[in-house]
Amino acid sequence: MLWLVALSFVCFSWAAPFPANYKEAADKIIAASTSESYLTFDNYEYMCDTFGPRFVGSDNLENALSWVSDFLTSEGLKVTKEPVPNITHWVRGDESLDMISPRKAKMALLGLGTSVGGDVTAEVIVVSSFDDLHKNAEKAKGKIVVYNVPFVTYSETVQYRSSGAIEAAKVGAVASLVRSITPFSLYTPHTGIQHYKDGVAKIPAAAITVEDAEMMDRMYKRGQRIVLHLVMKAQSFPDTKSWNILAEIPGKVSPQEVVVMGGHSDSWDVGQGAIDDGGGFFSAVHAVLLIKEGKLPQPRRTIRAVLLFLFFSFLFSFLSLF
User: Fold this and answer.
1) Minimal CA–CA distance to 62: which of 313, 312, 241?
2) Which of 118, 64, 13, 49 minimizes the C-alpha distance to 285?
3) How far is C-alpha 108 from the chain's CA centre?
4) pLDDT at 43
5) Is the whole-model pTM more than 0.90?
């Protein structure tokens, strides 16, 4: 996630024109980054192909972090490993969703992060909002709640993923299924984090495809009885630990002033984390390497690339690194 760097460029462009005395250095960086010999993408591909998903608590993540640390050290950067203790360790396990009525069919799903496991067979109630759920609270008791909420914006719609199980449990539901938080689907469910609340029962929570959410909504509105069988073998284990990686070029004049760029090193368990966020943190790392390999003078300020572990605490961790 290079939002900070992008924001810095935007603010800089508003503040003043690009200084002429930086042009030579900028030209060297651009030339190096676009040369055929530059291996940003090769290293990025190697990490994704070799280590696969970098999920919290997995050997894949720890092996990837070790490789990245060794790689950056071999490139001559000052590398610091920052321990991160007390990390939630959740494992998805096997999971399945089957429609029993009005017909038999297998349905795609992905359990949501931190969900409890369960083996549930129950009727479905389909709702379009939290207000709709609470208006039909009596009907929801003992049922599987399906949230068929069309995507508006991520920040607005994601509440149904993050808090759907809480609200469903409050009215006595036995499981929560949320339409994937996406404007586009090719029968592809999207996972993500969800939360529980003290004093509210923990029920299984998973995401289903846009297509299946729409289908069950049509069935429900016709008055058809929908019965699903949900199996989730998700488990939570004792907290684990990992580490952040900080790689930098010390500043010559004002080393205490730090230019920070970075991303998160972990990913979900159902993909390689190439976009989220392998591309982000590799861009940050190679931005630092470009300055070093471009044979430029030592920078006035310290330039630091940060590979933060655990996306869910990313912003809070990021602020502590200045």
Assistant:
1) 241
2) 64
3) 20
4) 85
5) no
